[in-house]
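Final report, results section. Input specification for complex C-07:
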Amino acid sequence: MAATTPPLRRSSATTTIPPPPRNITSVKKLAETPNLSSIPPNYAYYNNPTKTTASDSDDAIPTVDLSLLSSSNPDQKSKAVHNLGKSCQEWGFFMLVNHGIPERLMMDMIEVIKEFFNLGDEEKPEFEPEKVLEPIRYGTSFNAAKDEVLCWRDFLKVFVHPHFHSPHKPQSLRNLLEEYSERIRNVVRELVKGISEGLGLEECEMEKALELGSGLQVFVANLYPPCPNPEVALGLAPHSDHGLLTLVIQNEGGGLQIQHKGEWVNVNAPPNSILVNTGDHLEIFSNGKYKSVMHRAVVNNERSRISIVMANGPSPEAVVRPASKVVQAQGCTPAYAPMKYKEYLLSQQSNKLNGKSMLEQIKIQDL
Ligand SMILES: O=C(O)CCC(=O)C(=O)O
Ligand SMILES: [Fe+2]
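Structure output:
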């Protein structure tokens, strides 16, 4: 599926496009330029200011209560499994409550990431855009070497599983990150069991097929500084995530928008909840039953927003294909070609951020 709101420059193939500045290292620095009254043209994603607006959906965004998924009451548990499957199918997105992750830890994560972005550029890991699978990467936009329009966002990406990495500054980051990533993996394990059951599989079948014991977990911290033209810039362009389930917390309520029934919808998260979106590999594994959700981040001109993202995927070595039992139950054939997760990831991250373009490449048929 292509983005429904095409970006400014991709729409006119015949226009000569000036290349983006190659020396951009941080949008934070740019935003701190004294008297910055407008964005450089390379950040104008839309030419129509209404394109970044979204509605507050009439349908309520679903909530999933993790404690009910592990309930010892079989009735309660099966209702929770059903609710989880329905949320994945109808929205590809839900707000997770009663997840058991201490609020203190979530707040500490946000604080330590604030400190990270406040370090001088010389203290941060080197920004090397061509090495997209380096375990620790600090950068700006999505893939600044390829993006035609730059995103108003700086990021830190760290591979935290199956091998744990961490920047060595700020000092408290390593321990916090280790604890947070482990707790998130435990939450994801419970969600995956419920999703597996909801797909008509054994509770442990999905975990086994995708080799989640050595699943790839990528920590992404996003900084969206105040932007002088929030109506035409984007923090992150429309995209779906490559993995299975992405779990997001944030310091500011608004900013994330998801696509639902073809419309952009604002996500207004309840306090202490975790936002969960389904990724491309859940779409592949479920043979298109649970479509990965398109989402984007918008920016504002008043406050810096930080989001802390944990992307949880299959093992990098797993060759992922639609689950045969699901395909049989649908009475059709696989809709996606098998592919090693590592190769999918490399290809998606090496290109510009462009909707669900990577998934389209392995799609055999629309279901
Ligand atoms: O900042 C957000 O809310 C979304 C971030 C996101 O979509 C991503 O990092 O993939
Ligand atoms: Fe995302």
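The pocket of 2-oxoglutaric acid (ligand 1) is lined by residues 220, 222, 236, 241, 248, 255-256, 295, 297, 307, 309 (CB under 6 Å). The chain has one domain: 27-362. This concludes the modelling results for the funded period.
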